[in-house]
Design a protein that fits this description.
The chain is mainly beta. Helices cover 11% and strands 40% of the residues. It has helices at 12-17, 163-168, 184-196; strands at residues 19-22, 32-39, 42-51, 56-61, 70-82, 85-93, 97-100, 105-113, 120-130, 136-148, 169-170, 181-182. A hairpin with a 5-residue loop joins β9 and β10 (136-148). 12% of the residues are buried. Residues 205-210 have low confidence and may be disordered.
Length: 227
């Protein structure tokens, strides 16, 4: 199966440990994560664990006093076909233990929120416990800013390549789309569901088409286009 990760920078200490925990932006074994959030904001963060020795069973825990602020999910990698091309995605499972197979990756998602945390810096330490190797601790340094998103109808800005767009527009002829025709009645249920799952905004551009998505942004107060 096609890998969903970069190759980790495996060192002698990682082999001795028996596994490496890394991210797609940092291929080295990580000891801490720094995140900025607003008040009552959600933030998802992916860790990747690769087992380097024999198969082992892992479990993940966190302090009880932060049980409202962190949720652990393990991803099941699934594949489907879109426009005759095989693509892979992740189904998040509400489990905190998994069996690691030698030389294979496990995707660990940390779903964090700042609910009840005062503005300032907070430290959450998670523990990764293999049955046959040394336990590893990773510190999450959460910086809560004194900023709050709207409680209802937050700002949604869409990338032209966001799957959300294909659910919420009419008369699409992929892959050649001359113009979007939005159906706001279709969009509302998806926007509501995204909000209920902690999503407060979506990027407004893609790497090859900076600024394109902003032509479809409407101002909340008067309904006029922003551009």
């Amino acid at each position: 199966m096609e890998k969903l990760t970069v190759e980790p920078d495996i060192r002698a200490s990682d082999i001795e440990r028996g596994y490496i925990v890394y991210t797609n932006s940092n291929p080295e074994h990580i000891k801490q994560i720094n995140l900025d959030v607003g008040i009552d904001e959600f933030e998802s963060y992916e860790l990747i664990l690769r087992t380097l020795k024999e198969a082992d069973k892992f479990s993940i825990s966190y302090p009880e006093n932060f049980r409202k602020n962190i949720e652990i999910k393990i991803a099941e990698v699934l594949s489907t076909e879109i426009w005759k091309k095989k693509v892979h995605g992740q189904k998040l499972l509400s489990i905190r233990s998994f069996n690691g197979k030698k030389d294979e990756d496990t995707h660990i998602w940390l779903i964090l929120n700042s609910n009840g945390l005062k503005p300032g810096r907070h430290k959450i330490e998670i523990s990764i416990k293999p049955e046959n190797a040394v336990e590893e601790k990773i510190s999450i340094n959460l910086n809560v800013w004194n900023v709050k998103f709207p409680e209802k109808h937050p700002l949604f800005v869409f990338s032209p390549n966001t799957l959300f767009n294909y659910f919420c527009v009419d008369k699409i002829q992929p892959p050649h789309i001359a113009e979007w025709e939005w159906n706001f009645k279709k969009a509302q249920p998806y926007a509501t569901d995204l909000y209920q799952h902690g999503v407060r905004q979506i990027t407004g551009y893609s790497w090859h088409n900076v600024g394109y998505g902003y032509k479809y942004v409407y101002l909340r107060d008067n309904g006029k286009k922003a551009s």
